[in-house]
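R.M. (postdoc): so does anyone remember the format we settled on? I'll just put the structure tokens first.
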């Protein structure tokens, strides 16, 4: 099976997208709050409240999925593979940070262990009652 065909990998990658979405929504919300200072009548209050609710919803969804992912990652046998998947998809670390955190290994070695851990994660993911 090719790495691109792994459903578990797609699930983990959606966690990285949450970080981007949260950053975008936070920036958007900051913009609207800054604009509201120019409109002291409160005309923008409903729009700001709507955007705050959207942001809270995204954060809630991300938190729920990260808890599920963490439980599945914890089932991996290889402790280094667990650490790499956790740092990549739960903490959203860069490859450089991951390699340093794993005892100063090379990024290439971190990628290699990551790829092997993804195949182990796939088994756990497909056996999970949540996503099967």
């Amino acid at each position: 099976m090719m790495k691109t065909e792994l459903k578990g990998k797609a699930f983990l990658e959606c966690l990285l997208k949450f970080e981007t979405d949260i950053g975008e929504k936070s920036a958007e919300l900051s913009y609207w709050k800054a604009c509201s200072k120019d409109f002291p009548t409160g005309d923008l209050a409903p729009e700001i409240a709507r955007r705050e609710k959207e942001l809270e919803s995204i954060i809630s969804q991300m938190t729920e999925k990260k808890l599920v992912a963490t439980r599945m990652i914890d089932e991996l046998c290889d402790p280094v593979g667990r650490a790499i998947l956790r740092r990549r998809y739960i903490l959203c670390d860069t490859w450089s940070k991951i390699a340093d955190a794993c005892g100063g290994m090379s990024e290439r070695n971190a990628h290699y262990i990551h790829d092997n851990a993804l195949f182990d994660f796939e088994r756990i993911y497909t056996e999970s009652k949540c996503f099967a």
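R.M.: ...and that's the designed sequence above, right after the tokens. Also worth knowing: Residues 17 and 62 are 9 Å apart (CA to CA). The longest helix spans residues 7-36.
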